[in-house]
Amino acid sequence: MDEMLETIKMNVLQGRVDAEDEGLEGDMEGKPGVLELVKEAVEKGLSPKNILLDGLTAGMEEVGRKYEAGEYLIPDMLAAAEAVGGGMDILEPHLKGDETTSKGRFLIATVEGDLHDIGKNIVATMLRGSGFEVKDLGAGVASDKIIGEAKEFNPKFVGLSALLTTTMPHMKETIDKLKEIGMRDKVKVLIGGAPTSEEFAASIGADHHCRDAFDALDKLKTA
Amino acid sequence: MTENGYRPGTIVNPQKRISDEQVKILHKASMEILDDPGIVCFNEEAADYLDKAGCKVKKDENWPQKAWQVRIPENTVMGAVESAPETVVLGARDPGNRLHLDTDVPRLYFGTGSETNIYLKTRIAEFQQVDDPNHKIRYPVFSEDRGTVTHLCESAKLCNALENVDFYIRNVNLQDPDITEDNKDVNVFLASLMYMTKHVQAGITNLDRLDDVLKMAALIAGGEDKLKENPIVSFITCLVKSPLQMVEDTTQKLIGVARRGFPVVVSSSPQGGSTAPILEEGMVSMINAEILAGITLAQVVNPGTPVLYGAVPVRARLDTLHDLYGAPEFVHYNVDCVQMARSYRIPVYSTAGVGDTKVPGMQAMVEKILPYLGVASSGAQYIHYALGLMDKTNVFCPLQAVLDDASIGLVRDILRRPLFGKENAEKTVKEVRKVMASSTRLFARYIRKPLREGLVTKPYAFESTEDKDEVMVKAAERLDEILSGPDDRLDEGMLERIYKEVPGPVARERFLL
């Protein structure tokens, strides 16, 4: 059974979502990836908590160490995070209430009028891989829609992304609406996107400005 | 490594500067030059060889020393060209560092060169802005040493560690007081081979000492037969003094090396505007004639001698007549020579990357990177002078060599031949379909395999992380790291044998870094 968890961890390191994935060296196509392995582990009766902690999380932590050491670059991190996110989707229904190790719910969107979502997608993938329960509303999302989803999803964190200076005002609009409905104190708001800044975040009442996905993860450790 | 165990170099799709028709035009002009006025030869033995090979040789009384006018017919030249090997193997202490020069394969190799008089050392100092004392920057300051045995050892150690040095031509002139014409060659080759596991090449000061150098090389290679199989040393002979004069002593050296069957560069280095025409058609017609004259002699002396077509053309600056390596003409001349050599099916020894400037900086970067790109794009097989040279080959700067190593890496990445085929395109289409079907629509995961196969380039080695230029400081840190790190020196036992069996090396401690 330990061997199974070790294999899951190894596949997280390889960033292999499924059997179609070639892995880092390009020679693993056809071998089960994280999705197949997690499914098999659940069917074999392994503890979902152990699968999560000793397989997925252990793998992702090792990925993080390799990234810090310069052995892994962002594509490796993203691939691993995607694999972990997929594995967690399979595990989630099987985890008992007290076993869930979600770091919290994170609602994320690119604001109204802005179609840019690459950065937001990377953040969402990395957050999933790090153990957050992420609801991604996509791009060009009106603040009313964000508020409606926030009421339903009840997130701990709201992430807003913009790449155009003309769409940045919608970030303040969303924060003001959170205040209006009395949710502002219950969530932490993080903003990001190339034209945004620490000063802008402070001026609109956001809790954090994030330069990139890794800055976001860093800030979330203490948020 | 290539599949046969050689240094891989970088294979490119060679760009042509001159058309096939222009190559023929230049060849014809060279043949006419070799016929009239021909070559002035100051070496009697060479004149005799060429006479017996069908050249028209007659005494030339216009010179104070003995001289012969030699008119070399085209059929003699082309017979020699035919006899010169199309592939040349240059060996190395580490056999994985051997070079395979194949006229059919535009595989770039880069290396050092020139015998500089000044070794430019670097120290990083802190500078404070006069009108804003809070603003400080770090920048190198330079000091000059006259080259010695120890400097040559240090240079060899450095260049052995630099990834983009494929071969090592000694680049420091030994000016120790006890270095003489008699012992210089052994000390040059010992200092180089001591730390260098790649191919080592140099000129010869004293032909009488050539066999001592070869004896030392044989000891290191594992015996005379091993040395023949894996020639860890080879020689440069610039026998023609432009315009069109075969000098007595270097011509004798070519004869000596050719007789022994070792690889030899037959080079010429005319200066456009003084000892050669300045326009490319004139320069290339003439240097081509000079190189072919030398190659003809080498093949007449010993048919099948492995030769490199040694092109070192440079332009003069017209206010001082000093060399001007940063001139666009330099690139024109060198690229044209690559094409000429390719037309003769002889591997080419080419030139790029000399700084006219005296110190590292922006001028040096411009003067080096543009010629690297220009000359390398032609598929030149053996690009010498490429690292560390400044002040028109008078200075070797180790810091500059580190910077040049990074620049050459970029040039290799820019020029390397794309290898994709139909299968790759089909794979790409599948990848695009998968990504578009995913929620993230990111291609990042598909980068992992090409990243690990070395197909994805890395950022500039000395990129700055803050809003100031940190290139020099980072390069200096890398230089210190290499020089203070481990090396591949010859072991004590080998050194013992060399000192016992080969005359001439100076005190052992001067070779020990």
Strand order of the largest sheet of chain A: 2-1-3-4-5
CATH class of the largest domain in chain B: Alpha Beta
Q: Any idea how many domains of chain A?
A: 2
| SSE pattern of chain A, N- to C-terminal | HHHHEHEHEHEHEH
Beta-strand portion of chain A reads 5-15%
Helix amount of chain A, in percent?
40-55%
User: What would the CATH topology of the largest domain in chain B be?
Assistant: TIM Barrel
Q: Over the alpha carbons, how many angstroms does the gyration radius of chain A reach?
A: 18 Å
How many helical stretches of chain A?
9
Average pLDDT number of chain A: 91
**CATH 4th-level superfamily of the largest domain in chain B:** Trimethylamine methyltransferase-like
| Structural class by SSE content of chain B | alpha/beta
What's the CATH topology label of the largest domain in chain A? Rossmann fold
Unreliable stretches of chain A, pLDDT < 50, 5 or more residues?
Answer: none
Distance between the termini of chain A: 36 Å
Total individual domains of chain B: 2
Q: Treating each run of at least 4 consecutive H or I residues as one helix, how many helices of chain B?
A: 16
Q: What is the alpha-carbon Rg of chain B in Å? A: 24 Å
Task: Please provide the count of β strands of chain B.
Answer: 22
Major sheet of chain A: 5 strands, parallel
